[in-house]
Amino acid sequence: MITKKKILFLANSDWYLYNFRLPLINALIEQGYKLHLFAPLGKYEDELRSLNAEVNDATLSRGANQPLNDLKFLFKLRNYLVSEQIETLHSFTLKSCFISSIASYKLNVNLVQSITGLGYLFINNSFINRLRLLILKPLFRFFFNKENAKFIFQNLDDQQLFIDSGFCSASQAYLIKGSGVDCKKFQPRVRKYKDSNCTFLFPSRILIDKGILEFLHASKKLKENKVNTNFIIAGDHDFSNPSSVSEAEINKWMDLNIFNFIGHVHNMHEIFQKVDVVVLPSYREGLSKALAEAAASGLPIITTDVPGCRDVVEDNYNGYLVKPMEIESLYECMYKLSNDVQIRKNFGLASRLIAENIFDVEIINKLTKKLYL
User: 137, 158, 300, 331: least surrounded by Cβ within 10 Å?
Assistant: First the structure.
């Protein structure tokens, strides 16, 4: 009897596994792998349990405020790795990777670590964050840099930072740009390009480090200058995130009746069909899936010249790159695209080509599965 190879996925939310890794999970199950899924269970528990996989509730907190809880989970994960004889442990997000490195210490486990972005810990330069990094960096060097570990990076900047910091060696580092986009699902619409009205979409959570404030201010300026535009914000509040925007401030912007706040949506491929330009002035990403999906949908993109965003957009080819935290240059690019249908059309065609050649989920999953061997 042939035994199925056992792979465990660890993530910081069931939302992440379902929205970012479902095609990979399904592909592995179809190929005969035995999948074990660990994540804090919530809205997507039923969807995950409907898969032919072992689903476990990971009592893993997203931040650094529950160390005893995380320590308890660490021992639970280690015991599970041993009892279930897990052969490959694939973790997603920085904290999950760190936890899995400790839990698998001196175990015969093939460790695959997806650094999907460096997040608030590396973006924010506060005293508390600098102190955390001072403590964590030696621990990262000790637990990360093991012979049985392979690291997947979504952009070259994050990869180089890990290598330069001694968290991993160059031979352990693999560049795989994102989690992939279903280019059959995300398709360009047939655009008539006759309507002078231009609709902009901000496709992200309402967080300061996603550039929401810059988007709000630049959009407001367009309206004040009587530019014929509409603005959609497709993303939820995330009050547990230290970069969240207060509910009072969001309500203040909503009262202007300029923006259509539609919250988190499941049918993003349909939303992309209804807009003309995607805007994400983020401060840093691993690789923005929203931007990759926008590219597959044949849309021009305005984003920031930072890691994880400039990996999707080539300036003046399929969109514009602006400096982070700068409202005026963002406004100018939004103004330019709102008034130039031909540029929007050219950028959209270029975006689709980029998505098909780089971000298609079949390409990404093929590269990822090689690391399980």
Answer: 137
